Amino acid sequence: MALNTPAAAPNGSVSDFLRAIWLAVGGDAGSVSGVEVTGEGDLPSVFAVSDLVTGAAGAAALAVAEFVGTTAPRRAAVRVDRRLVSYWAGRSIKPEGWSVPPLWGGIAGDYLAADGWIKLHTNSPHHRKAALAALGVADDKETVRAAVARWHADELEAAILAQGGCAATMRSQQAWAEHPQGNAVATEPLVHREMAQAAKRKQRAFDPARPLAGLRVLDLTRIIAGPVATRFLAGFGAEVLRIDPPGWEEPSLQADVTLGKRCARLDLRDAGDRERFIGLLAGADVIVHGYRPGALEGLGLGAELRRRVRPGIVDVSLDAYGWTGPWAGRRGYDSLVQMSSGIADEGMRRYRKDQPTPLPVQALDHATGYIVAAAAVRGLTGRLVSGAASTMRASLARTAALLASAGPRDGAGTLAKPGPTDFSDRIEQTPWGRAHRLRPPVTVDGAIMHWDRPSTTLGSSSPNWENPAENSQ
Length: 473
Description:
- The structure is a single chain.
- By secondary structure, the chain is of the alpha/beta class.
- The protein has helices at 14-24, 49-69, 82-88, 125-135, 141-148, 153-162, 173-178, 180-186, 225-235, 254-257, 271-282, 295-298, 303-309, 334-341, 343-350, 363-386, 396-405; strands at 35-38, 78-81, 93-95, 109-113, 116-120, 167-169, 192-198, 216-220, 239-244, 261-265, 286-289, 314-319, 388-395, 428-430, 433-437, 442-444.
- The chain contains 17 helices and 16 strands.
- The strands form 4 sheets. A 7-stranded mixed beta sheet has the order 7-13-12-11-8-9-10. Strands 1-2-16 form a 3-stranded mixed beta sheet. It has a 3-stranded antiparallel beta sheet with strand order 3-15-14, with no helix packed on it.
- β1, α2 and β2 (78-81) form a beta-alpha-beta unit.
């Protein structure tokens, strides 16, 4: 049964974003008043970035409080610190004696084409190869710049996509609203929700201090929203097992997004590895995946198989450009969606810049990550109460529409840089060296948000569940 009710457009406050997100994941409106927002400051942007990520984090924390409340006499109070949430949307780790590789490098970036701007997203080797193949040039920034200038932006965007790469023409908000994909996204719910027939339930041990302990999360996500979601779940005790294909690396992000997780590798195109994955799925409570629509079906791991292998599974997915419309299967990232949807253009015009001006952080990723986490925990609550399985889907483009619906503002940010007291005193021993981590951005009374594992490298664990299952079904 589909349960898709579009939320009303917020006017830009934390409470409005929180309410829109909470209703989108099926929460009851009366719970929103139980969330206290602390801290001060705003990330500098012409959009309400800090309000968006704070509201999204608040919704995820509220979902945890609701889950705890299923076995408690009253729902736990929730607090969300807008300063810390804003910092977490950047980098959460402070290395000691080592450095995190830069996010962007090589030929990645914004280029002026013959009729406008285009962003090339080339952080992964195969995406860089695709862009160079479309342009027909060598791997050199200035050579690429000269080649891009000879193309019309839309034609180059299409050529790079045809090679299997990622790129996005900069459009205005008006152009995006008139575009078939922009129109499709605008009519989608913030979260697509479906509930399946109830399954048989079993009681499980429950510790309110670590409410998700004993629950298993199978993580098939990469840069950045999905890993943010599963990192949040790990913070409240879930066992998160991330699966990546052989050869995939995220050197600039691993220290941030692998916190609390074990990371293994499987090649889902290989029959043996696919069977091993199905074995993992059979023991999972939640699966979070960021594959493009139809990709898991193409691997023989579609929704019907997932439900059959694991009745009662909470199945949450996300993509870049939405689940309907001509671009539903399109590759994309936060920075590309900002270009397509008019966010970078609006920033350029309002700041009177001469180049695309995106959000100060990957806010679409982080907000969507918290939305996915909220959806996952609400699915667990539904399963605990009724035994029902659930399927939920979110997208970066729909989160962008939520942000844009609040309208622009003056853009003057007042967020100070994080100080020593914003970081935990505890030393995190990572594979790269010692580090401090930002303090948790949310508080749920009676529940402790902390991570049992330091961040780690991809592929550093074997593909198996580590702890005995305490599943509710």
